[in-house]
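tool=predict chain=A
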Amino acid sequence: MIVLRSRLFDLALVVWTMLFAPGIPVLWLSGSTDATVRLVTRLWARGVLFNLRHIVGLDFVELGKIPQNNEPHLIISNHQSTWETIAFLVIFPDVAVIAKQELLDIPVFSWYLKRSPMIIIDRSSGAKALRTMIEQGCWMSAAGRSILVFPEGSRMPPTQAVRFRRGIELLYAKLDLPVLPIALNSGLYWGRGDRCRRPGTIKVSRLPSIEPGLAPSEFLREVEHAIAFEARHLNRR
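tool=predict ok
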């Protein structure tokens, strides 16, 4: 039954995504704003989460406190699944996701992703990718948007310890934003390379904010430890 539901979800995902294809020329010809494109993108993401909930039986719950002010944050999360790249578009409206260039190969979705706009980086370009993150991150935070990054660099299994790649501490120092650490356990239900999506409830835990101004090395230790500790707890279901 789990396999059947997963296949039905795959079919529903393709159909739902293709329904947004006619919107591309409409939005392009009408000269729609970035905010309008993001609104349509969030509608797509809500539909995907709806199908997961009603076809697969996979839902999510948010834990922890929501920041009371509306100022931009640097949102840092562990990365276990494709799920969070979709769900965070809903959980954090108008967020600018730092995404890998390979996502631009996905039909339909890539058009909306690029024009939302998100921060697209080529991970193989080294220092250039870091400069892109910092320059575009500063521009988008100045426009009032939060920045979301998955500093592990790729989806990791729940059994693997959280380890962040270097560079996130430089982004923290340059953006000068409060940091919202996020821990989640999505890999228990939709793991990397797993064609089956399993029923259950993904937990998304907001941890206490980290203020700007820490030494980069101190910040890196603090945020990595906080997310790793919480992720281990969540992975026990």
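The longest helix spans residues 34-56. The mean pLDDT is 91.
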